[in-house]
Amino acid sequence: MSADKQKGEVIRVLVVEDNPDDLALFREYLLSVESVRVSRWVIRSAETLQSALDSLKEQDVDAVILDLTLPDSSGLNTYLKISEQVPACPIIVLSGMEDESLAIDLVKRGAQDYLPKSNLNPDLIVRAILHAIERQSLLQKLAEVNTALMHERNEVTQLQMQLIQAEKLESLGRLAAGVAHEVRNPLAMLQMGVDFYTRRPGPKDENEETMMEMMHDAIARANRIIVEMIDVSKSTQLEIKTDDIVTCVREVLNLTRHNVIKESINVIEKFPESLPKLQFDRSKIEQVLVNLISNAIDASPREATLEISASMGSVGRVIPDKGLRKLKQPRRGDEVVIIEVRDYGQGIPEDKIGKIFDPFFTTKPTGVGTGLGLSVSKTIVELHNGMLTIENAPPCGVRSRIVLPVASG
Ligand SMILES: Nc1ncnc2c1ncn2[C@@H]1O[C@H](COP(=O)(O)OP(=O)(O)OP(=O)(O)O)[C@@H](O)[C@H]1O
Ligand SMILES: [Mg+2]
After folding, report:
1. Of the N and C termini of the chain, which has fewer Cβ atoms inside 10 Å?
2. 241-405 maps to which CATH number?
3. Which CATH number does 3-120 carry?
4. Phi/psi of residue 15, each to 5°?
């Protein structure tokens, strides 16, 4: 064997041909050609469509040479069955005088080439096989590049949507700042008035007292909405420190204990012995947790179970890698800490799930929820380069997860 020949590849070909003479000739032709690109031919054969399909199931080949007329199949059907089974394998159609136009048609449908039986010669066969393999591999690469491009395009679209959202939030922020400025002073005046009448000496009737209390609550609520609107606008700065996330979760559980007891909720805590310290703004993450836990309690029936856990994981294994993410969010393989709030309440109707992060989206009665909780929470978690995910979980209820990156170094 020459040195050049040793550099080539082993090429495995399945020849599907029911005529033993044609098959023998084909084999002889192939073996007679020396090519620098081929170190050895492995030629397998099949005489029927079924035996060809069985053979392809058992072992891969680099190319199929296909006679369209076989004892158990003919014409287009022969080609379709084989290409269905091995869509990525190049198929070269052997055609007689009678089915040449069909062979040409098959090349248009995806066959790599056709060889007229009446005019075969060794060089032609080898060249057809090698070119077919080459073209198929290029097609494969093209398909991969195409998929990657589609992926990139989706990511760009996603980023554009995020930009639009960011711009919306920024305008909302500017609006909020204006509203805060304009409305806070009149609200303060109203509050002073309420305080004045509440503290006024002398007897008050019951209606008067109830009215004062209602006005006081309404002013407090209006103030809260303004503060939250400014929060949504993400103008707030984070105060990042290295801190223990489990202590933070435990503190929030203490804060929400009153509601838990009132609703007789059974809280199950699952915290590991140790977790790496994280970089976060404690009061902001507490704000997120208060909202997730309050949402869970609001959605749960009395005496329901509420599970709160913290754990280590990695994107792609514990947290699905959805492929689309903001630039600084955790990527496949990154180590993260996951804080999970799992309730067994009514869950979120499918037609509402896409809206829950929208500012002011709420299903709660007026006066109970402002609908800013999740929108603010998402902004806060993303400012920490993390992710906030909310999903319905079988058999019922919702699983909310705060995913925070484990800071490197
Ligand atoms: N655990 C949950 N189970 C069922 N529905 C939920 C859950 N968490 C959120 N939701 C739905 O998402 C909506 C938006 O939640 P979000 O926290 O943003 O606002 P809110 O709780 O209604 O008001 P706010 O938090 O501002 O007081 C809720 O009104 C509710 O319909
Ligand atoms: Mg809420």
Report:
1. C
2. 3.30.565.10
3. 3.40.50.2300
4. -100, 115
